[in-house]
Amino acid sequence: MTQTVLYGFDEIDALIPHSGDMCLWDSVLAFDEENIQCRTARHLDEHHPLKEDGVLSKIHLIEFGAQSIAIHGGLQAKQQDAPKLGYLASVKNVEFGEFDQTTPFLFVQATQLMADDQSKLYQFEVTDQQQRPLCSGRALVIHPQE
C-alpha cells in the first residue's frame, strides 16, 4: 500500500522545536484544519533518544501523540502566518494497547476538538502497522499570552 506524503522529515524537523533525533515523525500523510495523520519508522532506530536499554516505553507513545499535535499547530501557523508558542498542559483519558516495538511503522491520527486564543484540545491515537491501537488520549495545549 503506497501512501502519499504531504510533508517529509526535513519539513517536519524545520517546523517544530523537537528537531534532529527528537523529531519523532517521518511524514505527514494527511492534514486539514482539524486533523493530522503522520507515519514513522524512527521508533526502530536502536539509538532512539527515548529508548532505555534499547526499549521504548509505552509512556513515550504519549510524546508521539503530542508531537503530532505540535506538527498540526505548526502547519496551521504556516498557513496563517501566525506561529503560536504552545505547551502541553495536560493529557487525560490515556489508554494503552500492546506495543510490539518491531512494527514497521507507527501511525497517528490527531483531531482538534476545540480551539480558542488560549488553548486547543485534541484527541489522538497512535496505532501500529495493522492499525491496532497502541496509545490514545486527550491532550490540552495552552498558548501563553505574550
How would you describe what is shown here?
This protein has 146 residues and is α+β, with helices and mostly antiparallel strands. It has helices at 9-15, 61-80; strands at residues 27-31, 35-40, 87-96, 106-115, 119-127, 133-142. The chain has a six-stranded antiparallel beta sheet with strand order 1-2-4-5-6-3, with helices on one face. The longest helix has 20 residues, at 61-80. The model has no long low-confidence stretch (mean pLDDT 93).
Enumerate the strands of the largest sheet in spatial order, edge to edge or round the barrel.
1-2-4-5-6-3
* Approximate strand percentage: 25-35%
Q: Which class do the helix and strand fractions yield?
A: alpha+beta
The count of helical stretches stands at 2
> Which regions contain 5 or more consecutive residues with pLDDT less than 50?
none
Overall outline: globular
On the 0-100 scale, what is the average pLDDT? 93
Number of strands: 6
Topology:
Blueprint: H1 9-15, E1 27-31, E2 35-40, H2 61-80, E3 87-96, E4 106-115, E5 119-127, E6 133-142
Antiparallel strand pairs: 1-2, 2-4, 3-6, 4-5, 5-6
